[in-house]
Design brief:
4-stranded antiparallel beta sheet, mainly beta, 19 strands, 205 residues
């Protein structure tokens, strides 16, 4: 792999999917043997963010260079290409797996993508440098970390509206939702000894 970018695990199938940004590859590894099981390479692509639907075994990677999602279904002979917004860096799936959300870095927005139709159905501005996206499975809301504006935007994807904006440290880099809270990494170096910071924001219902 060259410039490995992100990894997600399909626990049901004992697979770890990884994106190889520099050589245009998305690779599945057996988590028990660590051997490569599948490789999909698209010339000129830049796979970045990863997500997997464990119900279907379908893996998704954002193609940062070509403004699209690479969909890799278990029995498909070729990947399906789905459009997104400008420079998608991160991807998350809805709880039912029917919708994808991409953090579009150059656009400073999140795209709401109907996977069945293969089309963007809503675009919601979130802030400059949209870098990471996560979903709250309890509320269905989408959270986007915006690096340049040092915020996390909370979006209602059904309405296509911003419902909250959380202020973080500088250079907001990643957001993850677990146990009813959003955990946000900020590469600010603003800790007492120059450390980066991790913020925790409780999420309402």
């Amino acid at each position: 792999m060259h410039h490995a970018r992100e990894v997600v695990v399909d626990e049901k199938r004992d697979l770890a999917w990884a994106s190889s940004f520099a050589d245009g590859s998305v690779i599945a590894f057996d988590t028990r043997t660590f051997k490569e099981k599948k490789r999909v390479t698209l010339a000129g692509s830049s796979p970045a963010g990863m997500a997997v639907d464990e119900r279907t075994g379908t893996a998704y990677a954002t193609d940062f260079a070509n403004d699209r999602i690479i969909e890799i279904a278990p029995h498909a002979k070729t990947p399906r290409l789905i459009p997104t917004g400008d420079s998608p860096l991160s991807i998350a799936l809805s709880k039912d797996g029917q919708t994808a959300y991409s953090a579009d870095q150059a656009a400073g927005a999140v795209s709401v993508i109907n996977l069945r139709k293969g089309a963007v159905i809503k675009t919601v501005p979130t802030g400059a440098g949209a870098k990471s996206v996560a979903t709250d499975p309890r509320s269905g809301r989408v959270l986007v970390a915006n690096r340049t504006t040092a915020t996390v935007t909370v979006v209602d994807p059904r309405e296509g509206t911003v419902v909250d904006s959380l202020t973080t440290g500088a250079n907001t880099n990643h957001v993850h939702v677990a146990h009813g809270a959003a955990f946000v990494a900020a590469k600010s170096g603003s800790g007492p000894e120059g450390q980066d910071l991790l913020h925790r924001f409780p999420l309402g219902h």
